[in-house]
Amino acid sequence: MTRKTSATTATLLNAPTGPLTPGVYVGVSGTSGYDFLMASTVAGATRLVGERFAPDGRKVITVLVGDAARGARRQNPDLAPGEGERRRVTIGPDFFAKPLRDYRDWPQGWWREAVQNAVDAGARNIALRAVENADGTWTVSCDDDGSGMSPETLTTKFLDMAGTSKTDPTSGTTGGFGEAKRLLLFPWISWKVYTRTSLAVGTADDYRIVHDRPARTGTLVEVVMPKDTHTHAGPARAFLGKCYLPRVGITVNGERVSANLRASDLVEDFALAQVYAPKIAGTGYTMIVRVNGIYMFERYTNDIPGRQVICEITAPSVQVLTSNRDGFRHEGLARSVDNLISRLAADTRSALSRKKGHFTKVYEGDPALRYRSELKAARLIEQIGPINSGSRTITTEVIQTISTEVDAYREEAERESTAKTSGGGLPSGGTAKTILEAVAGAGQSTLEATAKNLVWRQPFIVINEVDDLATSRGAGKLKKFLPESMTPQIARLAKVWSELCRYALSRLNSFPDGGYGVGFIFSEDKGAAFLPGASVAQAPNLFGPKSGWLLLNPAKNFKHLTSGASIEVWSPTKDADLKWLFAAVVHECTHVVDNCAYKEHNEDFAAALTYNIARLADGFRHARQIVADNKLKDVEGVRQKRKRAPSAAERQAAVDLMSQGYSTEEEADLLRTSVDVAVSSYDRAAAKEKLYQTISSRVRRAAGFVPTVAEVEEIKRGWSTAGLWG
């Protein structure tokens, strides 16, 4: 049933039995109509345009359905249909002078745009000229032997204000913005383009064109510039001196000019760009930013004798640079470059030394997963919705139903997964039940955020910022922290961290725009961290602008990682460690929930953190339950190399040792999993040593008993008898 509220808006009280008529609909929580509208919005079938809360606390949403949701043009009510004269916005000649103000250094920029187009067209020879005319004006030109342009490309791409034929980001071309002609042609007294058999001449956006001229190879671009606003041979030579185009012969006013500044001596790899510091005869004082060897712009650095810093963009320029290629539009890359320039100023020698073993690895960062999560969230929201018709608490039966469905989603994801994600992924049914019980009495918005969190398939990331930790000098210390080779204990830590993040975001009524990721970060100065999605160059567009990665440093002794000490790992089964982990989760989630800048810990952040701590003050008991929900044997993704399966006698002998008053049932359960790993791993010696350490620390812990040396030896003899030691 619908209730009309105006000529174009209706309140939907009940879920429709068929398709809705396009228009604007209002839904009120506690009705099946609201549940339908919210579910269809989450699934992307309709568009949410507003929400508020009624005096009785119920949530009210406004949704566009049909053509309105797809952005159809609406009639302005100030004029009746057909009334008035139809006109178009005109573009005056002053508009075409704007590029001269937009470019930081347009005299070099003109040559850059011309040479870039020639190189993208496959030119092997380029002739640049700048000649003063008798009246004081200047004729400036670029003549190349590239492939030239067809009449269609010339008129519909090159002479179209934002048109471009370079639409394939994998083609290796340097441009692709459709901006070059704004500086090349339109600001000047007159311009000419002669390519193949086509000749176009014009002023600003007014031009004439013919297609019957004698055929020529390549393209000639020629403009006439005013006597007081022109470029010349000097900027052309300066531009070419910052380029590396070894296969292209270039002349300036008939003289051969070298474009041979080669990038060598790699310093940093930012995934989207690589930074080099080749030796030069003089002193470098800028960082030159290039694409395919062509100079784009530069950033000032401190004086660096004998070195020139070069940043070579390896990603398509349209992804990381502004439209005029005078700066970075990619926030993460800009921040990485800023950080390097700061390090150059503080300690040049150290900053120019190649970092050893630093890496960033993203697992299952597929944006396509987002759409499927939205569909599953819509289904859960429909299930949660009717509960609020008479009560604000989810019943036990519904919690069990949803938990079972979430468990089925997880199993489906595991079957389809092509990547290894020991952390992240989807929650177990037990974890879903714990989270739902924690938010059962919350409001409508919290329940909807929880539904989205429960079906969000968290991408996982591993970042190392510590020198030598991942190299041979570090003895492969990080191997066991990578999803493809995680040990069961590390996998459990990763899973507990990811589910604590899911729990905290649900309790704090938040599901970040576009989702979020979790993972590990190895650093000497942080125990946990939040990184905006855009700051991770390997996955810059994975999340929305206000979301990112919630990261744990798995090393408790992170301040001493370069001292040669072994990595001491957090253990979520220990209350002291779990309390720290839970506190870290609340801290990092505050950056997301309250949109606090990731490096700012100011008064605003302190106030937000204090408020969130109060909201989660009762959460430690739920954290304990999440640990219990994710036992070693239940952690997804842990795949050990099998030598042989443990025999029943071996397993029973191990359990008997620990069940004679030495252990709780929980500890015996942990031991069973450890035994499975110990007797089935290729690395038996290392696994058994780890097992021995587990036994020594756990024997009679429940009774507060610490074993004597003799008792430890007795345990070892028991293992030997079982064929697991010696």
Q: Which structural category do the helix and sheet elements fall into?
A: alpha+beta
Largest β-sheet summary: 8 strands, mixed
Low-confidence stretches: 3-7, 68-74, 165-177, 387-391, 634-646, 677-684, 698-707, 722-726
The number of helical segments is 21
Number of strands: 23
Proportion in helices: 25-40%
Q: What does the average pLDDT come to? A: 78
Radius of gyration: 32 Å
User: Strand share of the residues?
Assistant: 15-25%
Gap between N and C termini: 76 Å
Shape: globular
Lateral arrangement of strands in the main beta sheet: 10-9-8-11-7-6-12-13
In terms of topology, how is this protein built?
Elements: E1 2-4, E2 9-12, E3 23-28, H1 32-42, E4 47-53, E5 59-65, H2 98-102, H3 106-120, E6 125-132, E7 138-144, H4 151-158, H5 180-184, E8 190-195, E9 198-203, E10 206-210, E11 219-225, H6 233-240, E12 249-252, E13 255-256, E14 266-269, E15 273-276, E16 279-291, E17 294-307, E18 309-313, H7 317-320, H8 331-346, H9 348-351, E19 359-363, H10 368-384, H11 396-416, H12 429-439, H13 444-454, E20 460-464, H14 488-507, E21 517-522, E22 528-532, E23 548-552, H15 575-593, H16 603-615, H17 620-629, H18 648-659, H19 665-680, H20 684-698, H21 709-721
Parallel strand pairs: 2-3, 6-12, 16-18, 20-21, 21-23
Antiparallel strand pairs: 1-2, 3-5, 4-5, 6-7, 7-11, 8-9, 8-11, 9-10, 12-13, 14-15, 15-18, 16-17, 19-20, 22-23
Helix pairs in contact: 1-10, 3-6, 10-13, 11-12, 12-13, 12-14, 12-17, 13-14, 14-15, 15-16, 18-19, 19-20
